[in-house]
Amino acid sequence: QVELVDSGGGLVQTGGSLRLSCGSSVDTFSLYNMGWFRQAPGKEREFIAAIAWSGYPVYYADAVKGRFTISRDNAKNTVWLQMTSLKPDDTAAYYCAARSRIIREWVPSSGDYYDYWGQGTQVTVSS
User: Exposed, middle or buried by CB within 10 Å (0-12, 13-18, 19+), for 13?
Assistant: First the structure.
């Protein structure tokens, strides 16, 4: 079992920045490919970004490309999502997710290919 803890959300003005963190206590964090998704009220879950176990390659949704950056430090068991130039449309609950690189096929942009999820952290961007 892999426990993921999301943090770093909050209220920010349009054009502002936030950095989300996703930590895990699992000893084998480097065995997991990681992703970030978000879900706004009344909308479907949306892929944001993903990063392979080694830190490369990385993947981004078109909606955030150039504004968001995903990174990880396996020694710290942490993956981050740096968000800049935030817009009201970025308002949502953000979730990190993990997928074992050893056992399973991985489709970075599909929530169906992740096994573990964080509890979510709310990001609200005011206009």
Answer: exposed
Distance CA 16, CA 85 (A): 6
- Looking from the CA of 63 toward its CB, the CA atoms found within 13 Å total 13
**DSSP structure class, residue 29:** G
Take residue 90 and report the two structure tokens written for it: 């970025």
One digit per residue, the tens of pLDDT, for the chain of length 127 reads: 889 999 999 999 999 999 999 999 888 899 999 999 999 999 999 999 999 999 999 999 999 999 999 999 999 999 999 999 999 999 999 999 999 998 779 999 999 999 999 999 999 999 9
* Residue 120 to residue 28: CA distance in whole angstroms: 22
For residue 94, how many C-alpha atoms fall within 13 Å in the half-sphere facing its CB?
28
C-alpha span between 18 and 11 (Å, rounded): 9
